[in-house]
C-alpha cells in the first residue's frame, strides 16, 4: 500500500467527518445544544459547551484536511519520472514524408462542374 493511498483514505475519512460536523451545527446558533433545551442556564452533562466543541472540531478537521492534502501532494510524484517520454527526441520515430504532387496532377477540389 503506497503512501498516497494512505493519505487518500485519511482525506476521505476527514472530509466525511467534516461534513457530518458541519451538518450537525445550526447556522442560527442553536445547533445541537438548542435541541437539548439550550435556553436555560442549568445544563445536564455539559451540553452548554456543545457549540464550542462543534466549532473547535470544525476548525481542527478543516486544518487536518488541508495538511493531509498538502502532504499527499508530496507523495504523488514518488513513482513517476519527471521527464516526459513524448518529448524525448531520441526515442521518437519520424513521421513519414508524403511525396509532393507533381505538376501534371490536379488536386481534387470536389468541384465536378465543367465550364
UniProtKB/TrEMBL annotation:
It is found in: Cell membrane. PANTHER family: PROTEIN-EXPORT MEMBRANE PROTEIN SECG (PTHR34182). One of its GO terms (molecular function) is protein-transporting ATPase activity. InterPro entries: SecG. Involved in protein export. Participates in an early event of protein translocation. It holds the Pfam family SecG. Keywords: Cell membrane, Membrane, Protein transport, Translocation, Transmembrane, Transmembrane helix, Transport. It comes from the Bacteria. GO terms for cellular component: plasma membrane. The keyword Zinc-finger does not apply. Residues 91-115 are annotated as: Disordered. This is Protein-export membrane protein SecG. The chain crosses the membrane at residues 6-24, 58-76. One of its GO terms (biological process) is protein secretion. It is a multi-pass membrane protein. It comes from Winogradskyella aurantia. Belongs to the SecG family. The keyword Transit peptide does not apply. Its main location: membrane.
Amino acid at each position: 500500500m503506497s503512501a498516497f493511498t494512505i493519505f487518500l483514505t485519511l482525506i476521505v475519512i476527514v472530509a466525511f467527518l467534516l461534513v457530518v460536523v458541519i451538518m450537525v451545527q445550526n447556522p442560527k446558533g442553536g445547533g445541537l445544544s438548542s435541541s437539548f433545551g439550550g435556553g436555560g442556564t442549568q445544563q445536564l452533562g455539559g451540553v452548554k459547551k456543545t457549540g464550542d466543541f462543534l466549532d473547535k472540531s470544525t476548525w481542527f478537521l478543516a486544518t487536518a484536511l488541508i495538511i493531509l492534502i498538502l502532504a499527499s501532494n508530496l507523495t504523488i510524484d514518488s513513482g513517476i519520472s519527471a521527464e516526459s517520454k513524448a518529448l524525448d527526441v531520441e526515442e521518437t520515430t519520424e513521421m513519414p514524408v508524403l511525396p509532393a504532387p507533381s505538376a501534371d496532377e490536379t488536386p481534387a477540389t470536389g468541384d465536378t462542374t465543367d465550364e
